[in-house]
Structure formats: C-alpha cells, structure tokens
Design brief:
The chain is an alpha+beta fold. It has one domain (31-170): Glutaredoxin, CATH 3.40.30. The protein has helices spanning 2-15, 44-49, 54-62, 91-106, 161-170; strands at residues 29-30, 36-37, 40-42, 80-86, 114-118, 140-145, 148-154. A hairpin with a 5-residue loop joins β1 (29-30) and β2. The chain is globular, with a radius of gyration of 18 Å. 27% of the residues are buried.
C-alpha cells in the first residue's frame, strides 16, 4: 500500500512540473523603418531567446513585483484567456510586456491560455490575428472569458500595471487610457 501511494505521489509531482516553453518558429523580419522585428505569433520563449529582443530579459529581471500582488486573483483565473498584441520595435511594449509576463508568472497563469502576437509598425500581422479586434496602439492586452472580451489594457497604465490588471481580472470597473 505504501509503495502504491509513493508511486502515485511521484507521478503527481512529476506531472505538475511546468515544462519550459520552446520558441514558436519565426523569422525576424525587416520593418518598414528598416528595423529588424519579430512578426506574427510568438511566445515568451521567443522574447527570451531572440537576438533582437535583448531588452526583454534585462527588463524582466530588473522588475520587482510585490510578492503579495495577485494572491486574491486565483479564483478569477478560471476560464480566463489573454491575447497580447505588441511590437518588438515599440518602447511601450518593451516597458510593459516584461512586467506583464512577470506578473503572470507570479500568479502562475497557465501559458496555454496566453497568446502573444508581434505586430508590424502598421499594427498588422501577416496572418491577420488582429482582424476585428481594433488594435490601434501597442501593447494591447485583451482579456477573454467564455470567448467574450471582458476588458483590455491599452499601451500604458491608468494607475499602475498591477492595479489595472488586477481590476480587469476581477471584473471590476476599469477604463483603459484611450476610452
């Protein structure tokens, strides 16, 4: 009996270990400005490993989030999906996306419920992932529950990134910077 319990415990622990993400295959592209950018569907691993996003790791590791932030968000994460539209060329994205991803890591947000799209300077992707979503500024973080948009963060915080994201996830009243 002890052997079965021990084996079950080991299987459970091993299956709960998060496997590191692999970058989504993507080729750097030349933007209309001549700058080399990422374009299309990407993930955090792309940002961590690409030669053109060296800013990401530096920003991610310099950010310190309040360890208490997000403790009350767990009940609100069920069914939550997030689409991130950003530009690797964009200073606002370079400032907000590492911070946002650090916050998601802190609350152990399921990366399977997160989609990241790197956009051109014209706010487009070759696959038109932005179609119908009214992306005018980057970064734009769109939060969905049951396939319906519940709210969005656009370009810069109204109060602070932590406060804004917390309000959106909890379903509290929140109006982004451009409304």
């Amino acid at each position: 009996m002890k052997k079965v319990f021990l084996i079950s415990l080991i299987v459970l622990l091993v299956s709960c270990v998060t496997q590191p993400q692999k970058p989504i295959p993507t080729e750097p592209t030349k933007a209309s400005s001549g700058e080399i950018i990422l374009l299309g569907k990407i993930n955090k691993a792309n940002l961590q490993t690409s030669d053109i996003t060296l800013w990401f790791e530096k920003q991610y590791h310099e950010i310190s989030a309040d360890p208490q932030w997000g403790k009350d968000l767990q009940p609100h994460l069920k069914g939550l999906k997030i689409k991130v539209f950003m530009g690797t060329w964009c200073e606002d994205s370079q400032r907000e996306i590492p911070h946002f991803l650090k916050l998601l890591d802190q609350i152990r947000f399921d990366q399977n419920n997160l989609e990241i799209y790197a956009m051109s300077e014209e706010k487009t992707t070759p696959e038109n992932f932005e179609k119908g979503l009214e992306i005018y500024n980057v970064p734009t973080l769109i939060f969905f529950r049951n396939k319906n948009e519940i709210n969005r963060f656009v370009e810069l915080p109204v109060n602070s990134l932590e406060s804004d994201i917390s309000k959106i996830i909890k379903g509290e009243s929140y109006t982004h910077s451009y409304e």
